[in-house]
C-alpha cells in the first residue's frame, strides 16, 4: 500500500488577531453597542477570533460612510483611476494569496488545495477582470452614459467567503458604486483581511465597508433606506424575504440563491471524465455549492457501470484536515449545517433510498460528513427536491433524452445543470431545453470572471460575472 | 466469477477473428474527453508526497525502472556498464534496491545477459524492427526470436501505427498475436507509440487492441518520436488495464517510457497508479518506467532523504 | 327608408386565441360599452393558456417571431380608423404601428447584442445567450391607451415570452380591439392574453401565481398596491418591472431594458479537445 504521509500547509503564514472590529470609513472600529461573536475553525472547533457584531447604528454609520465616499470621492473619480485601485487590489491578493488561502481554509473548513488552486486564483482574476471595465463603461453596451447606482448593500454566504466578496465588490466598485458588505457570521475572517488589503492599497476611506454579524445585521443593512442596491447570495428562503423587504422601494435587487442541479449522464458519455465530473460536481467544497450537481440523472443502460466507477472513485477521496495538501474533502462549515445535512440524509434513508459511503475515518473533533450517495431515488424523495448543501448525491435514472430534460427541469430551482455525452447535437438539444442559467457540457463546476453566472426561477435573478455582471450595478 | 463475466471473456476472445468485430468493439469503447483527462492527470500531480511516503515511493520507483539505452552507438562495454549499474544503482548504499530491468537492442542482449544472470533483474529487448516497425512480418518475428534466444525475458515490440491509423485493426492484432507466439515464455510489452496516435480515443483503442491480442504490458513510447509518455496518456492506459481486468480477469502491466526524468515526475506517476488502478499495480511486475536519466535523480533524492543534505551529480555514476 | 340599425360589438376577453366572456358572467360599463369584468378564474385560465403557448412561441425561430410581429404592424395599419374611432389620436396609432415594426426587428438581433462568447481562461467554448423567462403578467398603462399597451406587450413577446395583460380598467377598448388585430396576425393563440376589469381583482392573482415567471407593474399607479404586488411576486421570485414614472415619455426611444429584464441568460460551457 502507498500511504501518503501528512503534508500540512503551515498555518503560521497567516497572523490571526484575537479580535476584529468593523471596517467602516477606512478604519477598524468597535461596534456602538460592543456586541461580539466568535468565529471558529470547523475542523477543530477551536476559536479563531472574536468578531464585532454590527447593530443597526453601526450599519447606519457604514452606509453613511459609503454615501459620503460615493458622493465625494468614488463617484466623481475618473474610471481610469478607479481601475488602478482595483488592479492594485488584484495584485495584492495575488501577492498575499497563500495567506488568504490558509485563512480561508481555517475559517471555512475547505481543503487547502481548493482555496489555493480554485478560490484565490478566481478572486484575483475577478478583480483583474472588473478593474479593466472601470474606464470602459460607455462601451459596455448599456448606452453612452451609464451611471452607478450609489451605495450597494451586499450580503454573502459562507461557502466561498472571499470569492463571493470578489463577485460582489469588484463589479460594484468598477461601476462606480461604494459598498457595505456583510460576510457570513461563520466565515468573516478573509473579508476582514481584505479590508486590510484595501488599506494597503490606499483605497479611499468609505469605498469599501465591512460589517460583521448575523441575520439581524444583514437585515438592518438590506432594509437601510440609504442603500440603492441590494445584492445577496445565499438561501432561497432568505432571498425571498429580501425580495419582499425591498418591495415598493427604489432599491435594485439581484439574487443568487439555491439550486438542485441535475447532472445528466447519457450512455455514450466519456465515462471516466463523467465520473470525475460527478465527483467534482457534488464533492467539491464539501458540496457547499449552490450550483452543485446534487442530482445525478444517469441513463438506465449505463447506470450500473457509472455507479460502479463512481463508488470506486469515491473510495479514493481523502476526508480530513483541511490544511493537509492531500485532503479532498474538508470540514462541514458549521454544526448547524451538519445537522441539516444529517436530517436530510436520514430522510433519504427513511424514505427508502439506498445509502452508500466509502469507508472513511472521520476526525473526532470538528464537523464532518462522509461523501454519500443515495441510489433508488425518485423525484418524490425530499433528497431529490431539497437543497442539501453537503456532500450528498441523489442518483436517479432515465430512459430517453426527453425524460432526462423533464426530470432535470422538474424543480423550482434553475441555477445549473450538467450534460455528458459524446454527441454534439444532443448536447445542444438538451442545453436548449434545460431551464438553468449555467449549463456545463462534458465538464462541471467551472467558473470564470468573464462568464455570467446566475439562475432561472427560484435560483434568483441577475447575473454575476462578465459584461452581464456590470448591469447589476449600473442604472440602465 | 459471475456468468456474465465468463461470457464477456469468451466474447472478447472472438473479436480477433473479424475486422468488423474488432472495429465495432474498439469504436464502442467510451470516448475520452481530452480536457477532462488532462485535468484529472494534472490534479493527481498536485498530491504532496512527503517524508516516509516519499522514501517508499523512491525505492519503489527505482525497482520499476527499465534502465534503457537504445542508441546506434551502443557497444558491449556501454551496455555491460549499464547492467552493472542496474544491479547496484548506488554502490555506496547496499540498501538501495536494484532496478526492474535493463532494456537494450537485440544485438546487445548477450552482453547484458552475462551480467544479469541470476540477479532477478529482467532483461528486456526491443524487437520487431524498433522503432518504426517498418519491416516485413517475418523479419520482425525473427528479430523477436533472436532476442529471446540470446537471453531476453521481456520483449518490447512496436505496433504498426500506419495500419492502426488506417483502420486496419486486424493487421495490427495479428502481428501482436504472432509476436506473442514468437516470444515463447518471454513477456511481451506492446509499444503503442502514443505520440503518433494523436488522440486519447486512439490510445484507449490501441490499448485494448494490444491487450486483446495477448500483450502482457502496454507501453507508451519508443522514445524516438518527439512526444513520449505523458501523465494523461498513462492515465488513459491505466483506465484501460483496469477495465480490461474487470472484463476478462487478466491483469496487464503499464510502462510509460521517455521523458520521465525527475523523481517528482516519477512520484506523480505512482500517485496516478495508486488512485486509478490501486495497489495491485504498484509493483515492478505491473508498472515500469522506461527511462535512463531518471535513475540518477531518484538516487540523489534518496540520498537527500537519508542524509538531509542535497546531493550533487558528481557523486552518482554516469553509465 | 329608415336609417340602418348598426351592429354593435360585444367586448370580450382574449384568452388562448379565443374571445370568451368572463366565466363569472359579469361585465361593466366603460367608454360607453359593456366590457367583460374578468375574475380570478379568468386570470388563472389566461395563465394556463399563456403557459401552454410558451413551448411553441419560445421555440419558434427568431426570424419567425419577427415576421409575426411585423404582421401585427401590417394588420394594425389596416385598422387605423378603428382605433381613431375609439378616440386614439392618429399620431398615437402611427407610433404604435412603428413600435411593432421596431420590436419586430429586434427578434433576431437582441441575442447577438445581449449574448456572445466569453473569453474564459481555459480550453472551453463558452457562450451566453438570452432566453425568454416564460409567462409574464403585465399591467398595461392607462395612457396612452394604445401606444402604452403596445409598448409593454411587444418587448415581452418578441423574445419568446407569453403574456397575460391586465388592460387599463378605464380605457380597455383599445386593448380589446388590439386583441382583434393580434387574432388576425398569425400570432399563435395564448401568446398574448388580455383581461379587462378591475386590477385589484386579477392582478393580485397574477402576482401570486406560482406559474408566472415575471410581472411588469408599469401600469400600476397606486404605490401601495405596487408594493403589495411586489411582495406577492417574491413568493416564487418573479422578475419584477416596477411602475413607470408618471412622466414617462412613451414616444421616446424605448431602449432595450423592457426586453432584457424579461430574459434569462444561459451560459453553456464545453471543453475544446480532440
TrEMBL record, chain A:
<feature type="domain" description="Aldehyde dehydrogenase">
    <location>
        <begin position="33"/>
        <end position="476"/>
    </location>
</feature>
<dbReference type="InterPro" id="IPR016162">
    <property type="entry name" value="Ald_DH_N"/>
</dbReference>
<comment type="similarity">
    <text>Belongs to the aldehyde dehydrogenase family.</text>
</comment>
<dbReference type="Pfam" id="PF00171">
    <property type="entry name" value="Aldedh"/>
</dbReference>
<protein>
    <submittedName>
        <fullName>Aldehyde dehydrogenase family protein</fullName>
    </submittedName>
</protein>
<feature type="active site">
    <location>
        <position position="256"/>
    </location>
</feature>
<dbReference type="InterPro" id="IPR016163">
    <property type="entry name" value="Ald_DH_C"/>
</dbReference>
<dbReference type="InterPro" id="IPR029510">
    <property type="entry name" value="Ald_DH_CS_GLU"/>
</dbReference>
<dbReference type="InterPro" id="IPR015590">
    <property type="entry name" value="Aldehyde_DH_dom"/>
</dbReference>
<dbReference type="InterPro" id="IPR016161">
    <property type="entry name" value="Ald_DH/histidinol_DH"/>
</dbReference>
<keyword id="KW-0560">Oxidoreductase</keyword>
Automatic annotation (TrEMBL), chain B:
<dbReference type="InterPro" id="IPR013785">
    <property type="entry name" value="Aldolase_TIM"/>
</dbReference>
<keyword id="KW-0456">Lyase</keyword>
<dbReference type="GO" id="GO:0004139">
    <property type="term" value="F:deoxyribose-phosphate aldolase activity"/>
</dbReference>
<comment type="pathway">
    <text>Carbohydrate degradation; 2-deoxy-D-ribose 1-phosphate degradation; D-glyceraldehyde 3-phosphate and acetaldehyde from 2-deoxy-alpha-D-ribose 1-phosphate: step 2/2.</text>
</comment>
<protein>
    <recommendedName>
        <fullName>Deoxyribose-phosphate aldolase</fullName>
        <ecNumber>4.1.2.4</ecNumber>
    </recommendedName>
</protein>
<dbReference type="InterPro" id="IPR011343">
    <property type="entry name" value="DeoC"/>
</dbReference>
<dbReference type="InterPro" id="IPR002915">
    <property type="entry name" value="DeoC/FbaB/LacD_aldolase"/>
</dbReference>
<keyword id="KW-0704">Schiff base</keyword>
<comment type="similarity">
    <text>Belongs to the DeoC/FbaB aldolase family. DeoC type 2 subfamily.</text>
</comment>
<dbReference type="Pfam" id="PF01791">
    <property type="entry name" value="DeoC"/>
</dbReference>
TrEMBL record, chain C:
<feature type="domain" description="Aldehyde dehydrogenase">
    <location>
        <begin position="34"/>
        <end position="240"/>
    </location>
</feature>
<keyword id="KW-0560">Oxidoreductase</keyword>
<dbReference type="InterPro" id="IPR016161">
    <property type="entry name" value="Ald_DH/histidinol_DH"/>
</dbReference>
<dbReference type="Pfam" id="PF00171">
    <property type="entry name" value="Aldedh"/>
</dbReference>
<dbReference type="InterPro" id="IPR015590">
    <property type="entry name" value="Aldehyde_DH_dom"/>
</dbReference>
<dbReference type="InterPro" id="IPR016162">
    <property type="entry name" value="Ald_DH_N"/>
</dbReference>
<protein>
    <submittedName>
        <fullName>Aldehyde dehydrogenase family protein</fullName>
    </submittedName>
</protein>
Amino acid at each position: 500500500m502507498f500511504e501518503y504521509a501528512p503534508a500540512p500547509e503551515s498555518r503560521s503564514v497567516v497572523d490571526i488577531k484575537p479580535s476584529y472590529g468593523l471596517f467602516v470609513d477606512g478604519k477598524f472600529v468597535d461596534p456602538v453597542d460592543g456586541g461580539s461573536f466568535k468565529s471558529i475553525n470547523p475542523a477543530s472547533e477551536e476559536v479563531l477570533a472574536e468578531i464585532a457584531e454590527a447593530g443597526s447604528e453601526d450599519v447606519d454609520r457604514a452606509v453613511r460612510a459609503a454615501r459620503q465616499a460615493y458622493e465625494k470621492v468614488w463617484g466623481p473619480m475618473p474610471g481610469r483611476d478607479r481601475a488602478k485601485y482595483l488592479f492594485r487590489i488584484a495584485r495584492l491578493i495575488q501577492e498575499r494569496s497563500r495567506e488568504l488561502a490558509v485563512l480561508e481554509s481555517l475559517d471555512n473548513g475547505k481543503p487547502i488545495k481548493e482555496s489555493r488552486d480554485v478560490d484565490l486564483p478566481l478572486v484575483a482574476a475577478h478583480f483583474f477582470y472588473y478593474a479593466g471595465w472601470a474606464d470602459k463603461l460607455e462601451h459596455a453596451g448599456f448606452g453612452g452614459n451609464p451611471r452607478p447606482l450609489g451605495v450597494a448593500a451586499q450580503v454573502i454566504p459562507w461557502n466561498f467567503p472571499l470569492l463571493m466578496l470578489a463577485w460582489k465588490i469588484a463589479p460594484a466598485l468598477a461601476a462606480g458604486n461604494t459598498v457595505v458588505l456583510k460576510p457570513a457570521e461563520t466565515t468573516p475572517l478573509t473579508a476582514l483581511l481584505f479590508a486590510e488589503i484595501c488599506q494597503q492599497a490606499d483605497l479611499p476611506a468609505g469605498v469599501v465597508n465591512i460589517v460583521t454579524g448575523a441575520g439581524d445585521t444583514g437585515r438592518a443593512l438590506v432594509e437601510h433606506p440609504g442603500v440603492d442596491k441590494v445584492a445577496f447570495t445565499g438561501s432561497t428562503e432568505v432571498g425571498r424575504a429580501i425580495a419582499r423587504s425591498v418591495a415598493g422601494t427604489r432599491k435594485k435587487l439581484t439574487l443568487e440563491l439555491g439550486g438542485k442541479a441535475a447532472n445528466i449522464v447519457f450512455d455514450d458519455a466519456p465515462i471516466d471524465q463523467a465520473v470525475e465530473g460527478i465527483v467534482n460536481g457534488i464533492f467539491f467544497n464539501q458540496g457547499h455549492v449552490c450550483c452543485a450537481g446534487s442530482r445525478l440523472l444517469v441513463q438506465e443502460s449505463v447506470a450500473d457501470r457509472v455507479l460502479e466507477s463512481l463508488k470506486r472513485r469515491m473510495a479514493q477521496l481523502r476526508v480530513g484536515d483541511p490544511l493537509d495538501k492531500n485532503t479532498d474533502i474538508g470540514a462541514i462549515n458549521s454544526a448547524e449545517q451538519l445537522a441539516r445535512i444529517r436530517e436530510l440524509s436520514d430522510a433519504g434513508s427513511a424514505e427508502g433510498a439506498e445509502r452508500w459511503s466509502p469507508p472513511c475515518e472521520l476526525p473526532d473533533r470538528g464537523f464532518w460528513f462522509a461523501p454519500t450517495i443515495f441510489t433508488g431515488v425518485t423525484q418524490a424523495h425530499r433528497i431529490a427536491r431539497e437543497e442539501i448543501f453537503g456532500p450528498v448525491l441523489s442518483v436517479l435514472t432515465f430512459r430517453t433524452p426527453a425524460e432526462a430534460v423533464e426530470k432535470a427541469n422538474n424543480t423550482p430551482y434553475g441555477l445549473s445543470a450538467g450534460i455528458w455525452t459524446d454527441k454534439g447535437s444532443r448536447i445542444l438539444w438538451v442545453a436548449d431545453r434545460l431551464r438553468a442559467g449555467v449549463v456545463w457540457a462534458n465538464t462541471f463546476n467551472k467558473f470564470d470572471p468573464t462568464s455570467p453566472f446566475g439562475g432561472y426561477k427560484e435560483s434568483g435573478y441577475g447575473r454575476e460575472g462578465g459584461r452581464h455582471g456590470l448591469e447589476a450595478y449600473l442604472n440602465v | 466469477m459471475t456468468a456474465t463475466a465468463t461470457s464477456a471473456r469468451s466474447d472478447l476472445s472472438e473479436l480477433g477473428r473479424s475486422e468488423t468485430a474488432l472495429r465495432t468493439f474498439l469504436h464502442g469503447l467510451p470516448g475520452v474527453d481530452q480536457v477532462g483527462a488532462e485535468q484529472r492527470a494534472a490534479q493527481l500531480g498536485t498530491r504532496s508526497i512527503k517524508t516516509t511516503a516519499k522514501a517508499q515511493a523512491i525505492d519503489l520507483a527505482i525497482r520499476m525502472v527499465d534502465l534503457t539505452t537504445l542508441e546506434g552507438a551502443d557497444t558491449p562495454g556501454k551496455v555491460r556498464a549499464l547492467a552493472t549499474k542496474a544491479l547496484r544503482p548506488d554502490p555506496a548504499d547496499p540498501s538501495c534496491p536494484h532496478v526492474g530491468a535493463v532494456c537494450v537492442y537485440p544485438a546487445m542482449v548477450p552482453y547484458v545477459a552475462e551480467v544479469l544472470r541470476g540477479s532477478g533483474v529482467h532483461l528486456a529487448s526491443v524487437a520487431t524492427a524498433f522503432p518504426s516497425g517498418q519491416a516485413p512480418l517475418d523479419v520482425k518475428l525473427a528479430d523477436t526470436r533472436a532476442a529471446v534466444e540470446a537471453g531476453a525475458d521481456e520483449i518490447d515490440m512496436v505496433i504498426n501505427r500506419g495500419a492502426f491509423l488506417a483502420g486496419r485493426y486486424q493487421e495490427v492484432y495479428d502481428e501482436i498475436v504472432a509476436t506473442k507466439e514468437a516470444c515463447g515464455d518471454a513477456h511481451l510489452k506492446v509499444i503503442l507509440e502514443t505520440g503518433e496516435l494523436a488522440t486519447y480515443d486512439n490510445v484507449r483503442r490501441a490499448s485494448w487492441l494490444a491487450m486483446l491480442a495477448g500483450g502482457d504490458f502496454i507501453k507508451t513510447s519508443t522514445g524516438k518520436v518527439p512526444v513520449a509518455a505523458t501523465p494523461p496518456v498513462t492515465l488513459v492506459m491505466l483506465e484501460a488495464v483496469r477495465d480490461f481486468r474487470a472484463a476478462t480477469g487478466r491483469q496487464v502491466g503499464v510502462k510509460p517510457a521517455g521523458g520521465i526524468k525527475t523523481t517528482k515526475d516519477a512520484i506523480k506517476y505512482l500517485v496516478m497508479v495508486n488512485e486509478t488502478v490501486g495497489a495491485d499495480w504498484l509493483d515492478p511486475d505491473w508498472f515500469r518506467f522506461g527511462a535512463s536519466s531518471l535513475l540518477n535523480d531518484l538516487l540523489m533524492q534518496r540520498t537527500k532523504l537519508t542524509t538531509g543534505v542535497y546531493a550533487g551529480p558528481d557523486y552518482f555514476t554516469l553509465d | 327608408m329608415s336609417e340602418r340599425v348598426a351592429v354593435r360589438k360585444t367586448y370580450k376577453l382574449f384568452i388562448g386565441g379565443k374571445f370568451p366572456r368572463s366565466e363569472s358572467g359579469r361585465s361593466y360599463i366603460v367608454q360607453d360599452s359593456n366590457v367583460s369584468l374578468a375574475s380570478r378564474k379568468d386570470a388563472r385560465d389566461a395563465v394556463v393558456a399563456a403557459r401552454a403557448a410558451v413551448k411553441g412561441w419560445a421555440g419558434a425561430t427568431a426570424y419567425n417571431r419577427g415576421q409575426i410581429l411585423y404582421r401585427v404592424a401590417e394588420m394594425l395599419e389596416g385598422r387605423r380608423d378603428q382605433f381613431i374611432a375609439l378616440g386614439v389620436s392618429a399620431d398615437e396609432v402611427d407610433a404604435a404601428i412603428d413600435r411593432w415594426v421596431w420590436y419586430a426587428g429586434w427578434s433576431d438581433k437582441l441575442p447577438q447584442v445581449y449574448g456572445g462568447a466569453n473569453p474564459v481562461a481555459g480550453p472551453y467554448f463558452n457562450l451566453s445567450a438570452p432566453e425568454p423567462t416564460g409567462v409574464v403578467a403585465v399591467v398595461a398603462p392607462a395612457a396612452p391607451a394604445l401606444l402604452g399597451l403596445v409598448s409593454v406587450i411587444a418587448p415581452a413577446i418578441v423574445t419568446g415570452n407569453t403574456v397575460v395583460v391586465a388592460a387599463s380598467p378605464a380605457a380597455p377598448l383599445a386593448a380589446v380591439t388590439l386583441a382583434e388585430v393580434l387574432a388576425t396576425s398569425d400570432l399563435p393563440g395564448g401568446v398574448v392574453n388580455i383581461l379587462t376589469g378591475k386590477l385589484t381583482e386579477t392582478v393580485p392573482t397574477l402576482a401570486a401565481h406560482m406559474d408566472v415567471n415575471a410581472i411588469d407593474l408599469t401600469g400600476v399607479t397606486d404605490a401601495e398596491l405596487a408594493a403589495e404586488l411586489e411582495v406577492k411576486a417574491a413568493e416564487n421570485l418573479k422578475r419584477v418591472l416596477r411602475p413607470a414614472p408618471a412622466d414617462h415619455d412613451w414616444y421616446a426611444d424605448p431602449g432595450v431594458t423592457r426586453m432584457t429584464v424579461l430574459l434569462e441568460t444561459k451560459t453553456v460551457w464545453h471543453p475544446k479537445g480532440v
